[in-house]
Design brief:
Helices cover 77% and strands 0% of the residues. The chain is built from ten helices and no strands.
Length: 253
C-alpha cells in the first residue's frame, strides 16, 4: 500500500500528530497547529484528509476517557449550530480563502483572551445564552472545516461558564467528535479520503493514540486553576499564530 514517502512530510507530521493528541486529551487548541505544520509539506486540504481518520480514532479514546463528564445543555445549543456551520463551510470550501478564516478567528481569539485578562467587559463573566451557543457553534463548525481552527469559538462560549475541568474536557471531546464525523462525507467527496492519505494516516495512528492517552494523563494530573490558566495562554498563543498565518497567506495572494 502506497504512503507519502517525503521525509519533510514526516518531519512536520510527527509534531503535528503529537500536538493533536495532547489537544484531544484536554489541552484544547494545540491541535490548531497541526494543519499549518503539515501544510509545509502538503496542501492544507490534503493535510485535513490525512488527519480526519486520525482525529476519529483519537475521539474514541477521549470520549471514552471522559464519558461520564460532559454538559448536555451546552451540546444541545452548540451542536445544531455546528452542523449548520459545517454544511455552510462545505458549500463554500472552494470560495473562501483559508487565510482570511485564520485571520478572523485569530483576531477573535486574541480579543477574547485580552478581554478576560484585562477585565474590559462583563461579557466574560456573564452566562452565555442559547442564541450565543448556536452562533459560536456555527462559527466553530465553519472554522474547523476550513482551517482546523474550531477550538477558539468553542472556548469563547464555554470558558466563561466555569465548568469543572473534566466536564469542560468531556464536553469539548463530544462536541469535536461530532464535528469530525460530520467531515467524513465532505472530505470523501473532495477526494481526500483516498488510498494514499488513508495509508499515511494508518502509519501515524499509533503515535496519535499514544499522544492522546498522554494528553488525558496530563489533564487529570494538572490542578484545575493551573489548567484553565494554561488554556487561556494556549488560546492567546494560537490566536497570534492564526493572525500571522492569515496575514502571510493574504500577502502571498
Amino acid at each position: 500500500m502506497t504512503i507519502i514517502a517525503d521525509p519533510l512530510f514526516y518531519a512536520v507530521a510527527v509534531p503535528a500528530v503529537i500536538a493533536l493528541g495532547i489537544s484531544k486529551g484536554g489541552f484544547s487548541g494545540l491541535g490548531t497547529l497541526a494543519v499549518p505544520l503539515m501544510a509545509l509539506a502538503v496542501s492544507p486540504i490534503q493535510a485535513m484528509g490525512i488527519l480526519v481518520p486520525i482525529l476519529l480514532a483519537q475521539d474514541v479514546v477521549t470520549v471514552w476517557s471522559y464519558r461520564r463528564t460532559w454538559d448536555a445543555r451546552i451540546l444541545k445549543v452548540m451542536v445544531p449550530g455546528q452542523i449548520a456551520g459545517v454544511c455552510l463551510a462545505w458549500a463554500l470550501a472552494t470560495y473562501v480563502p483559508e487565510a482570511a478564516i485564520r485571520l478572523a478567528i485569530g483576531i477573535i481569539a486574541v480579543s477574547f483572551v485580552l478581554n478576560h485578562w484585562l477585565g474590559i467587559s462583563a461579557l466574560v463573566r456573564a452566562r452565555p445564552t442559547a442564541t450565543a451557543g448556536v452562533l459560536w457553534g456555527s462559527i466553530s463548525g465553519i472554522t474547523s472545516f476550513l482551517a482546523n481552527s474550531g477550538a477558539p469559538p468553542f472556548q469563547i462560549y464555554v470558558l466563561p461558564q466555569k465548568l469543572d475541568k473534566e466536564t469542560f474536557v468531556g464536553t469539548y471531546a463530544l462536541f469535536f467528535a461530532a464535528s469530525n464525523l460530520l467531515k467524513v462525507v465532505p472530505y470523501f467527496t473532495l477526494g481526500q479520503l483516498n488510498a494514499v492519505n488513508m495509508a499515511t494516516a494508518a502509519t501515524l495512528l499509533p503515535l496519535a493514540v499514544v499522544a492522546n492517552i498522554t494528553g488525558v494523563w496530563l489533564v487529570r494530573r494538572t490542578p484545575a486553576e493551573f489548567f484553565y490558566r494554561v488554556i487561556y495562554v494556549l488560546i492567546f498563543a494560537i490566536g497570534l499564530q492564526l493572525i500571522y498565518a492569515g496575514v502571510t497567506g493574504i500577502a502571498r495572494g
